[in-house]
Every structure is written in structure tokens, then in C-alpha cells.
Amino acid sequence: MKIAILSQNEALYSTRRLIEAGEERGHEMRVINYLRCYMNITSHRPSIVYNDKPLENFDAIIPRIGASKTFYGTAVVRQFEVMGVFSTNESQAISRSRDKLRCLQILAKDGIGLPVTGFAHDTQDIDGLIETVGGAPLVIKLLEGTQGIGVVLAETYQAAKSVIEAFRGLDANILVQEYIKEAKGADLRCFVIGGKVVAAMKRQGAEGEFRSNLHRGGKAEKIKLTPEERSTAIRAAKAMGLRVAGVDLLRSNHGPVVMEVNSSPGLEGIEKATEVDVAGKIIDYLDKNAVPGKHSDRIKY
């Protein structure tokens, strides 16, 4: 097959591993910086131009779309779909998962476990918003934040009120969530491909840090999931319409709860912690499922 990886940086670990895995299996791999593409949107011969040449004859694409480039990145993915090219994740599913509020609303509609969550923009009833999630301590997030940026743990009521007031001053959309104290600064990253969990790791935040992001000093180790955790991860990815996803869970007193569903999960942490060839499993999924013009997204919200 001829496979394009939509990535801004060929040197990134995830991109390099996908290239290696594809070439090992005899495929022709090419990295396309999607921001440098432009599109010819026409009814009869839609095309994408890159480096002054049309991109043609690709059997599949693997989108690795940066969170801050979601709008243009998904437009390029959508154009490939219009051209009949199979994508590991479809444009609509990527957009859906990148909207944190929409993601939570979809998961809630499907009855998937979540932290108690409130959402506001310019509410005057800060006390009511705080009480919605059971009071302090609570986690406050900017809706547009990524990789732990714009996430604050407010340990007291007064701290929570001050942070919410500050975020309101930024004219920002705000999520407030119950703090899952029993998780003890750890979460589970479940890597789902084609409706199966192929690898899972536990990420433990650095001492004094409630966020478990590895680039913030967190550590990762291989973990065995419970049947309920495995089922929750699979259901969350399916609810988003994602064929390839990183589902982040917390272990709470009332079962596993989903924190995030990532449409472009990194490979470095999960491969090193579990020693699973996740990149190879993505390529194997394409081997079995990449059919030109095949689209499966039927989610209506």
C-alpha cells in the first residue's frame, strides 16, 4: 500500500515509528506536512497539492493532527476522504474528540463513567458551579487547554472561586470537575485500535504534581486492566467514532472514569512502557481494513 502520514515533523518519535513499521511490512510510506497542502475543491476531480504536485494514488492516511491545528488538519483529512482515501481516523471523529465539552456530552449520553463535571462561561453563580461538582477540592480547566496546560487543582473553596473569577476575566469557557483524590495523581492510558485495547500503561505524576503527563516528569509502567476498564476504554473510543485512540482513565471509588479521548495519541510512552509494537499494530489494522471509499462514521452528534 501507499500510505501517507499527516505530520508536521518527520523527526517525531511517533512519525518515525510509523514509517519504520510500514516499511518493515513492505508499504510505501510518505510524510506529508498537512499545513503545507492546499486543496482544489471541485465536484469532479477534487485534489490536494503538496510541493507543487498533486497527491495521488494513496491507499490510506494516518492523521497526526496537532491540537492547535485541528481546523485546517481536519479539512485536509476530509479532502482525502472526498477523494476516497481510507483514514485511520475520520475527520469528523477527530473534530468531535478535540472538543472537550462535546466529547464529555457524548460519553455521558452513552452512559460511560465520567468525573462529575460542570461547564460555564460567564456565570455569576460561582457558588452554584462549585457545588455542582461537590465542592472543593476540584479541578478547573480551560476548555481550549492541552497537555495539562490550563488545568488547575483548587484545594479550597476560596482558591476555586479565585481561579474561576480569573478565568472569567480571560473571556474563556471553563470546565470544573470533581477531584478524584483516590487516583493519587495517576491515570491509565489505554491504546485502542479497531475496537481492541492493544496496550495499556499507568502514568504516575511527579511528587506534588496532580497531572500525570509524562512531559511534566511523570513516570509510566505497564499495567493490567480490569475487564471494566478495558470495556470502558473500548466504549469511549467507539462513542467518539475513533478507530485509533488513546483513552485516559482514572480509577475512582465508583469505577473507571474517562478523562480524555485522544485522536492522535503519542507512541513513545506507551511503546517504551509496555514493549508493545503499537506502530506495527496500526499498520496491521490498515492492512486488514483499508478499503478505498470506506467510511464508517454514523454518529449523529
Structure description:
The protein has 301 residues and is α+β, with helices and mostly antiparallel strands. It has 3 domains: 2-96, Rossmann fold, CATH 3.40.50.20; 117-179, Dna Ligase, domain 1, CATH 3.30.1490; 182-289, ATP-grasp fold, B domain (D-amino Acid Aminotransferase, Chain A, domain 1), CATH 3.30.470.20. Helices cover 32% and strands 27% of the residues. It is built from 9 helices and 16 strands. The strands form 4 sheets. The protein has a 5-stranded antiparallel sheet, sandwiched between helices. Helix 2 links the parallel strand 6 (60-63) and strand 7 (86-87). The longest helix is centred in the last third of the chain and has 14 residues, at 227-240.
Provide a brief overview of the structure.
The protein has helices at residues 13-24, 70-82, 91-98, 100-109, 126-132, 157-169, 227-240, 268-274, 278-289; strands at 2-6, 28-32, 38-40, 47-50, 53-54, 60-63, 86-87, 117-120, 138-142, 151-154, 174-178, 186-193, 196-204, 219-222, 244-252, 255-262.
